[in-house]
Model the fold of this input.
Amino acid sequence: MIVKWLITMITEKKIIRIGFGLAISAFFLWLVFRNIPMHQVWDSLQSLDIIWIVPAVFVYFAGVWVRTCRWGILMRPVKHCSTARFFPIYVISYMANNILPMRIGDLYRAYIIGKKEKVSKSASLVTIGVERIFDGLTMLVLLLISILLFPIEHEAVRQTVQIGSVLFLGSILTCYILLLKKDWAGWLFSRILNNLPAQFHSRLNDLFNNFFHGLDALRGGYEILLVSCLSLVTWLIEAASYYLVLNAFGFFGPFHVAIATMALVNLMIIVPAAPGYFGPFEWACFIILGNKGYGSLTGFTQEIAAAYALVLHVVVQWIPSTLLGLIFMWTEHVSFHEIDSDDEGGYV
Done:
């Protein structure tokens, strides 16, 4: 059971994993706060117009709902369920990513949907991987449009676009090569399988078939168009929540600032870090809203940019999604211990 094996493997590496992630997060937080007096950040927080925060939270979850709808389309070849059925499981994965390292929430999502709906966990995991690719490509397009129309003189932004382009374009290209050359992939897989013990053959064959089962949503032009459109809608809605928090700090200017900030943040949090993406998240907000980003447009000082990152990350996203995820975990009758210790062997 590949998803269970991945969860177990990650759990066994807990100390190294946590230490490495904390070091990465600490480094990025140091980059943000090394030259900023904390009392000035506190002063910026006190000037916050809190009336914008509650709408920002609701808009953020509206984006999560649309994202869940999109995942439902990718999941149709595996299991057809309503958005309302998938939404609690989706939020649980957010909660797990917030408090557990190495984005293990994605594995939790595949595990829970597999257990609850009696479907292949590995095929579900493939759909999550495809979803991440669409997310990355959408972020790249939005960020590229923003910085081409409204340039930012920051080397980190350019490097993020370059690395993201290689990563996500390479990933989607690999998926389609495998789909178009399934016979070739099957031949290569069989050659590898012949060199492995016979007791693994049945399980690995199921895994191979479930992998392509998870990619089935990419075969239809209508499904690809729908997923692409929902990806754009999803992230524009999330950008609206970013914009509302900008309003809270007194900025009511062009919407593209929120789009670029949202895109860079979501590209940066790919970097392995501590649970909740602390560090890379704040740094992305800091560089795009600070002096070398859109600071001249927003009027934000470095202190306000740092305060904005903290409010957006902690108050609008981290706390609400963590609390709601814990509630949904209770209503779904699953626990961390159950997921980490369950040795069920079915639904590869």
In short: The CA atoms of residues 178 and 185 lie 6 Å apart. The chain has one domain: 2-32+50-337. The radius of gyration is 21 Å. Confidence is low (pLDDT under 50) at residues 343-347.
